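Aim 2 progress update. The chain analyzed this quarter is reproduced below.
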Amino acid sequence: MKNVINKALLNTIMRPLLISGLLSVSALSHGQVQAANASAPQTLDRIIAIVDDDVILASEYRERYESVKANFSNNQQALPDDKELQRQILDQLVVESIQLQMAYRAGVRISDEQLNETLARIAQQNRLSVPQFKAMLEKEGRSYTAVREQIRKDLLIQRVQSGNVSRRIQISDQEIENYLNSEEGKKLTAPEYRFLHALIPLASDASQAQEIKAQEHAHALAQQVRKGTDFSKAITDGGPFNINSGDLGWRKLDDLPGFLTDAATSLSKGEVADPIRSASGFHIVQLLSKRGDGEIIPQTQARHILLKPSAIRDDKATEAEIKALRQRILNGEDFAELAREYSEDIGSASEGGDLSWTSPGQLVPEFQQAMDSTDINGVSPAFRSQYGWHILQVLDRRDKDVTEDMRRRIAGNHLHDRKFKDELQIWLQQIRDEAYVDYK
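Predicted structure tokens:
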């Protein structure tokens, strides 16, 4: 195992690598940078900046400065001019402090559970377990505890940025239409296909008998898959042929080999094409899945009542109360009226608990499971989720072609992300200008 963390991970856990995207704050003078840098060899810690109700310590600055230099060195990148680098590091610490203070004032918190999930995801992305990830950091001289807390701060900052910047962004239906009609939009939202593929190779000088034998074997394997044999299991029976096979992954039509374009547009999900002859041999392909092209998904319309445990009403009492509401509904009282009166889901209570149409995976697993197991017009048993105690009623079910909805959502997300980058810089400059900063 290599003791090297990839660049994506470094960007996640070490904000210093993001220097190029920081604000440039003209208020920091050359003399102030020199003062901050001059503090590096001191043994005693001291304050180098006051930022509203917070302070930046020389030790924080030194740690960030050394981390930046190490990261540039590890990635074999040339360091920026040292004075400019020092200035931007201090700028970064100031802007981070402002955002963290905003998070604390707004009551934004990152739970240990959320933090653990993020750490596990980072480790998994680098094909490591969490203990292996921890050991790697410590071997490289970095504190796992410090990295963990930095990630917590990063998550807090992401939430503050998302909440404050996203509400500044407005995307009209016309903008989405214009983008979908552009070449870039058409390419981004083009359908994608996922194929399982196997090749029975034939040499360019293969005899007619060899070709017939390969074709017959290809047909036999394709027929096995059609009858329900797992694709990879069927292909293992290569007979006299050395068959290459694999999952081609998600690809747009333009990215598929030419011999697959007809199969992509003509096959339904799960279907197997007749063996396809190319210069390389006979191809056996199964369309595993497709998206963005006749995407039909089951949807459920439901409404619910949510009660949350509190200091006044513990979990057991909350469960008893939601069960009592369920019994009242079974006795003939109106679900919507009870939802308006009792539900503590502020997003749906005023609508009688109506959640409109939802798709699989849109709601938390406990809710999805209860919804899937409840008949139309039926009322579910009381169940617990991370939000509290629920009962729900299924109003209807349908299969919906969501292709156009997906295209519009992809376009909207792309336009949002593009605007977010510009708006973020404007917002960061604004909060920096409004903050009290005193360099010592």
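The first strand starts at residue 47 and ends at 51. Residues 1-43 have pLDDT under 50 and may be disordered. These observations will guide the mutagenesis experiments scheduled for the next reporting period.
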